[in-house]
Amino acid sequence: MGYENVTQSLTKIIEMKNITKKFGDFVANDSVNLDVFKGKVHALLGENGAGKSTLMNILYGLYSPTSGEILINGKKVEITNPNIAIEHGIGMVHQHFMLVKPFTVTQNIILGQEPVSKMSVLNMKKALKDVKEISERYGLYVDPNAKIEDISVGMQQRVEILKALYRGAEILILDEPTAVLTPQEIVELIQIIKNLTKEGKSIILISHKLKEIIDAADFCLIIRRGKHIDTVVVPETNEEGLASKMVGREVSFVVDKKVKVAGDEIFSIKDLVVKDNRDIVAVDKLNISIKKGEILGLAGIDGNGQTELLEAITGLRKVESGEIKINDNNITNNTPFQVINKKISHIPEDRQKRGLVLDFDISENTILENYYKNPFARKGILNYNNIRVYAKELIDKFDVRPKEESKMARTLSGGNQQKVIIAREVSNDPDLLIAAQPTRGLDVGAIEFVHKSLIDQRDNDKAVFLISFELDEIMNVSDRIAVIYEGKIVGIVDAKDAEVEKLGLMMAGGGSK
Amino acid sequence: MIETILSNLALILGTTLMYSTPLIYTSLGGVLSENSGVINIGLEGMMVIGAFIGAAIGYYVGNPWIAFIGAGVAGGLFGLLHAFASVTFGANQVVSGIAINFLGIGIALFLSRIFFEGATMTKSIQLDNKMPRPLNGVFPDGSILNTIFDNQYATVYLAFIMVLLIWFFLYKTKYGLRLRSVGEHPTAADTLGINVMGIRYFAVIMSGVFAGFGGAAMSLAIVSNFRPTLISGHGFIALAAMIFGKWKPQGAMLACLLFGGAQGLAVYLGQFDINIPTQLISMLPYVITIVVLIGFVGKSSAPSADGIPYEKESKY
């Protein structure tokens, strides 16, 4: 059919024409065109840092474009601030939620357009009534009196959507809406999107996840490094087609992995008990062991003790009882420094908080664990020449972009931040590499790279411990899969015999040993 | 026996109210500024200029209310300066505040030398031209209520009314909601079309006005002139009270009463011939400030964006 034919009979409500945005020398958007149609879902696909969010911030009036024009219902408009965008019926749900944490759901929804009685005094009764009304109309149920800091991320997202609807939005921009959601919440969100389009709302869906674009979108604009690549009709394409346009080359979804016989046991945990921040037992007499040349995947739903387990191994949390051993050395309650020196490396769950010092440059981040050793330091004085040479080597080897060791870690895209961490950790030549959620928030190209790095470790006869909430990832990458539920291992299976349904059941606590 | 205890308590309570008052005004200023996300360490300097202008206008004009308002305006101008540096130019708010503290005492002394024949101390305001005492002589002589309220100036009662007003403003009006949202998450407020810069300007200027009132409550009521050591740290105590009060007007008020109470106790103990040097006793309020901040505040809940300049077009 083709894009032109399909869209002929539809009502155009937004046209963005030849939008260019520069930040200094950096071109974030380069002549991008986008049309949005009434009652349709238009996806915006691109790798991290491709310029999707920038384009939407322009539409929402947060950035002003360097050149180009925007038409709404056929009329040219200047959107210089969010107020004007709101007036034109544009609402935005940001990737990082724009919610005031100590405020209630209702306060957040009405903020900026508060119903008042005399003298600007808030009319909370009317506010509650209004919020209830729209939440029922679109099937977006929330507790209007709950504080944002007390509700789940999925609920917070509903509040964001309600905020836009409360302002009479006809066009909703959803910026990476599923990045923070659980699989169940994603299903619910896609249903919400369908309800909204049924009511005549138009949706712009920013994403780098192909599956949800296929599931939810009608059209898809693809941008790569700020440039307009193509607009496609989603039902006429598939994941592979979208992926190759997004990355600019063919992408393989199947992890390339040779059969390998694992060696001797190198790492073991016996009867480990760890408490969480609330002093409740989170890891409950847990036992696992990992062999040389093996990837052990830990499957489980978030909050079943994974974080506490990791922190206990890496020395970040106190072990109540039990034993952790590597190469026959007992490392129970060792400090992180000691753990690193026992040849354990760690790709942490939160790469921005624990993986990198965001305000250090790449070269400094590559030596965080070895800064005191030769050749990086001598007699306590850092040798920056050697550090830079080393960083350059890693940047080349792990293809970190941009190829400048003096770039601040903060300015890198998520995928490249992860590459810096992997480069640092793998270069320590660890006997055990722990990778926690290593591909969270990454695009397909970067995911491929991360998986390859893990498998390389295994092929070099090292042990790898992979913790992930993504079952697909666990099944594709691991050799053996352990399932954790309420702090206990409820089952261990060989990856080649694993079935999704069975694992899913065990993850929900329904499995048997 | 019981009567002596009661009348002593009444005496302490009376001095507590008196000494708390300047702190309450000033800490309310801090509450406004910091809830909008701007740290105001310059409260001390704003209080100093308020105290001087209050005393000067009080002496020359002779009307305490005009003097009081003049002090607020002077403090507000200093607030404007702080807003200009830290909101418009995104300067470090602590540095700007420190500069304002030096500027406050400097300008006050400079003006004092010009208008009071080279003296660093202003001339005393006549007793009739000081703040009125609304409950003076209302209660019978020697009664407990008389001991507490007889000598309280109008500024004392006004301070408590202000606490109520600021509380109502912050938590019950739409502008209060917006002001707090700007201090917690300015980007969120901005995306909803709230004028972040405008609200911060308003809040910082008002914090100067209230600190100015605080200074004047000192120089127009508790004493009757301005001298260089008059404020000596009260702005900082008010700042501490605001933090101890968890950035809330009612909490700040209670904290100010505690610090005022310490001062009241110091004054009360000072009249006895006990074997403790008076210098040590006068340290009491400051010692309590430190102890309270170390021991009881813990990780308290400052507005999330407190102290962070807001830049609109930053690429996050």
Summarize the structure.
The complex is a heterodimer of chains A (513) and B (316). Chain A has helices at residues 3-7, 52-59, 82-87, 105-110, 124-137, 153-166, 183-198, 210-216, 239-247, 306-313, 336-341, 351-355, 362-366, 384-398, 414-427, 444-459, 471-477, 500-507, and strands at residues 12-23, 26-37, 41-45, 67-72, 75-77, 90-93, 171-175, 202-207, 219-224, 227-233, 265-275, 281-291, 294-299, 319-326, 329-330, 344-347, 377-378, 381-382, 432-436, 463-468, 480-485, 488-494. With 513 residues, chain A is of the alpha/beta class.
Q: Describe it for me?
A:
The complex is a heterodimer of chains A (513) and B (316). Chain A contains 18 helices and 22 strands. With 513 residues, chain A is of the alpha/beta class. Chain A has three domains: 3-247, P-loop containing nucleotide triphosphate hydrolases (Rossmann fold, 3-Layer(aba) Sandwich), CATH 3.40.50; 265-343 and 430-507, P-loop containing nucleotide triphosphate hydrolases (Rossmann fold); 362-428, no CATH class. The relative contact order of chain A is 0.10. With 316 residues, chain B is mainly α. Chain B has one domain: ABC transporter involved in vitamin B12 uptake, BtuC, CATH 1.10.3470. Chain B has helices spanning 2-35, 43-61, 64-88, 93-115, 144-149, 154-172, 174-184, 186-191, 196-222, 234-244, 249-270, 278-282, 284-295. In chain B, 50% of the residues are buried. Classes of the chains: A alpha/beta (513), B mainly alpha (316).
